[in-house]
Amino acid sequence: RGHFNRGVEYYKENDFRAALVEFKRAYDIAPHYKVLYNLGYTSLELQDYASALRYLERYLADGGAEIASDRKTKVAQEIEKLQKRVARITIEVNVE
What we know:
Blueprint: H1 2-12, H2 16-29, H3 33-45, H4 49-63, H5 69-83
Helix pairs in contact: 1-2, 2-3, 3-4, 4-5
């Protein structure tokens, strides 16, 4: 809880790098889907769109029915925007 609370404080102070470190520590200690929301939006503030997309997708997947429908809609809209900013590649090889 200490790391999470410090992350929130740093986020409010617009110190997004420090907030990200604290949220990651909080998640490492107690992996809970709610922290993924904070990781996603902090990554978004840092313009790390690939990480933001990954965290927010995982937030929706892990949180499932526990996430309020209005929040779920908001996050889904953000994911849709992020998908346009993040490229995906597929690599296929013909060698084992």
